[in-house]
From TrEMBL:
Pfam families assigned to the protein according to its UniProt record, in alphabetical order: DUF6883 (PF21814)
Sequence ranges assigned to domain DUF6883 in this UniProt record: 9-109
Xref: InterPro entries: DUF6883
Lineage: Bacteria, Candidatus Roizmaniibacteriota
Protein name, UniProt field: DUF6883 domain-containing protein
């Protein structure tokens, strides 16, 4: 099943720069090492966002989970990296209760 929303998903640049690509964040630094090795960094953050939006739009939902905060969706797929390598990743998204726009939560390799 694919998510079909007219609303563009929310992807926080701060989350990408201060967590996913942060080499000093307590848990993010391990993700940063992986994604930076693929060429992602603060200067090409728009490419990262674009790849996440494409993944969200075109890939099937692997799983969904209802929580007290809303519904979380797991979407797996491939993204293209700045070094022209396709990499398999898992993303987590949420549509919070009372909201319509999906929001990016996290990403990691699979």
């Amino acid at each position: 099943m694919k998510l079909h929303f007219k609303e563009i998903p929310i992807i926080s640049r701060k989350k990408l720069t201060d967590y996913i690509l942060s080499e000093t964040h307590a848990t993010g630094k391990f993700k940063a090492k992986f994604f930076r090795s693929l060429g992602f960094n603060e200067t090409n953050i728009v490419i990262f966002e674009k790849e996440l939006r494409k993944l969200f739009k075109y890939q099937e939902i692997k799983d969904a989970e209802i929580s007290p905060y809303g519904t979380k969706y797991i979407i797996d797929g491939e993204i293209k990296t700045p070094i022209k390598k396709a990499v398999k990743i898992r993303t987590i998204w949420i549509i919070e209760k009372g909201q319509k726009r999906p929001r990016f939560i996290t990403i990691y390799p699979v």
